[in-house]
Amino acid sequence: MATFSFDTPLSRRGLMAGGLTAAAAAVGATLPDLLPRASAEVAPNNKHFTIQKIDRVTVKVPFREVPHRNMGREIPHWMWSEIFSVTLSSGVIGHGETLLYYTYGASDDDDVARAHGKNAVEIMWDDELGAGLQMALFDAVAKTAGVPIYALLGTKLVDKTPVAWWNIDTSPDDMVADCQEAHRQGYRAYKTKGRPWFDVWEMVEKTSKAVPDDFHVALDFNDTLLDAERGIPILKELAEYPLVSIFETPIFQHDVPGNQAIRKATRVPVAMHYGTPDPGLAIRKEIMDGFIIGGGASRAMRRGAASAAADIPFWLQIVGTGITGTWSTHFGAVLSHATWPAVNCHQLYQHQLLAEPMKVEVGYTTIPKGPGLGVEIDWSAVEKYKMPKPKRRPDPARLIETSWPDGRTMYLASNGKVNFMLTLGQQGKIPYFERGVFTKLVPDDGTSEWKSLHAQAQKGPVWK
Question: In the chain, how many H helices and how many E strands?
Fold first, then answer.
């Protein structure tokens, strides 16, 4: 029987040839228990690390023009962030950030109360504290110790880490403009969405003609291709463009036979979010080429180590402004298999909230070497964008028009749910991928006709 050790580096070929079954089972079932968790067995010095004060401020950072047109359809609430400042008994102040309404990250009053008065070293690995508070604790502890955050995570392996530009699904023209701007700023990778309400063929074709050959695009379908039978012909056509470098979650990740078929049908690597299906199963059944890893510090480190043990590349997906983008680079410094360009989304915003914005050269950003995060926050920008914290997730009324060349027109409207349009696409309730389809926001002109159509479209697609 093949044996496997998490202490032994293995090539992917070696895993597939012999020890894969044992490796995969361990990765999926027992790895979190096998890997060392960063916790303090010996009580650190409370003289320096006691949490004396936690301050929070909410900011609303506007999107740039191109993402503003597109993010506004389904996730306008990504403009709201919360900045944390943690003061330790050392006198050092650490800072962190979280998107208030992102899938992972928000800290509530109970988290803050639980942290107050504790030793920061003892609790900083607790992902349940939320992204901004956890980041601020790491920043404060590292500054007190006089080291970069990556020194608290592990051994630094690289001085630079790859970073991708990101935008939600866009019109072909907006995608061209964004990719050209990304390349101008030094990026060589771009991640966007493939959706049935935009012409994905035109998106890729136009962009291929508009950017140099060293620029690459990852297309995230978020399951909207639905199944391999319908999806493979589209993927094969898109794969004919050298620009296309990765397909993310083309169909539902738990569809093992379907994902196996997709991998065999196209040259383009397939990326999947770590966790579904069981990572051991995903590796053993060869349904993906790489993972997407995010979340808190403990989870990112454990999952990054698991990927390294199985010799599987991944990209880090830790989302926010430049503060969070910088935080991500410290994980990229120590995780050996974080070799796919990280997705941090800081390019969405008009301001990174940093005194010196993150810079990218030929696809890579230099990892800061100063204490803590190693960067300074632009507090004048924080003051400029400061807002009262919303009592609930902002959900402005939106009306969305999708049209096809044959004259069909469909309207959908915001209904209080996040990703309401995506959900319908995943359920197959929106017409499947077609050429020539186009989507746009319909501005509220204050008329009774707009309000009536919005009310109807909140209940489901309205056709005209």
Answer: 19, 16
Is the domain spanning 160-378 CATH 3.90.180.10? The answer is: no
pLDDT digits (tens, 9 = 90+) for 241-251: 999 999 999 99
pLDDT tens digit string along 163-172?
Answer: 999 999 999 9
Looking from the CA of 17 toward its CB, the CA atoms found within 13 Å total: 5
- Rounded CA gap, 95 and 328, in Å? 14
Structure tokens at 372: 């803590």
Model confidence pLDDT, tens digit, residues 296-355: 999 999 999 999 999 999 999 999 999 999 999 999 999 999 999 999 999 999 999 999
pLDDT band at 139 (very low <50, low <70, confident <90, very high): very high
Cα Rg of the chain, angstroms: 23
Is residue 58 within 8 A of residue 388, CB to CB? The reply is: yes
CB 372 within 8 A of CB 140: yes
Cis amide prior to 277 (ω within 30 degrees): yes
pLDDT (0 to 100) of residue 46: 67
Cα–Cα distance for residue pair 311/421, rounded to 1 Å: 36
**Mean pLDDT within 435-461:** 96
For the chain, what are the domain ranges? 46-149, 160-378, 399-463
| φ and ψ at residue 427, rounded to 5 degrees | -90, 0
Q: CB pairs under 8 A, 24+ apart, for 25-32? A: 25/280, 25/284, 26/280, 26/309, 27/279, 27/280, 27/283, 27/306, 27/309, 27/310, 28/278, 28/279, 28/280, 28/281, 29/278, 29/280, 31/6, 31/302, 31/305, 31/306, 31/309, 32/302
| 409-413, strands of its sheet edge to edge | 438-441, 399-403, 409-413, 462-463
Question: Rounded to whole angstroms, how far apart are CA atoms 256 and 286?
Answer: 9
The arithmetic mean of pLDDT across residues 401-409, rounded, is: 98
Q: Which stretches of 116-211 are DSSP H helices?
A: 120-123, 131-145, 150-153, 172-184, 200-210
- Report the CATH number of the 46-149 domain: 3.30.390.10
> Any bridge partners for residue 58, and if so which?
82
**Tokens 């228990």 — which residue?**
33
pLDDT tens digits, one per residue of 100-110: 998 777 888 99
Cα–Cα distance for residue pair 136/17, rounded to 1 Å: 44
Query: Three-state DSSP class for 448?
Result: helix
